[in-house]
């Protein structure tokens, strides 16, 4: 996975949309860190939410694992079940795949309503990553906004 280190540093200095102190254990057995340190100039680390799965674990916890390496799992412990649900939903919506599917869904809705492709003005309408047929064909359903559509 690629990322821009300067951009990541700049993002780490912006106010967070969600923040909480929670327990975290990384993929190595026995390693762990408690909470976050917002006063540091450098982030402690980052998890790129690309091709990942966020699932509830034991009560009050969830994990993030990656499709190419499901054994590499990060576990988080929240203060309550409600906080856990909020984090799971926020992390799922922050994933690249969710944002991409949302873009494709709304692109197609705008195209149906206006007859024009809203991405044409940016010169990116023909890129494969913005095409509906480049989504995995596994019959999964995706919930975007208040609409529930099967992406095929």
Automatic annotation (TrEMBL):
- InterPro entries per record: Boi1/Boi2-like, PH-like_dom_sf, PH_domain
Determine the domain of life of the protein's source.
Eukaryota
Q: Where are the annotated segments for Disordered?
A: 14-36
Listed GO cellular component terms? cytosol; early endosome; recycling endosome; trans-Golgi network
Pfam families noted in UniProt? PH (PF00169)
Give every PH domain span: 1-96
One GO term under biological process is: endosome organization
PANTHER family, alphabetically?
PLECKSTRIN HOMOLOGY DOMAIN-CONTAINING FAMILY J MEMBER 1 (PTHR22902:SF9), SESQUIPEDALIAN (PTHR22902)
Q: What is this protein called?
A: Pleckstrin homology domain-containing family J member 1
Q: Which organism is it from?
A: Nannospalax galili
Q: What is the lineage of its organism?
A: Eukaryota, Metazoa, Chordata, Craniata, Vertebrata
Record gene name:
Plekhj1
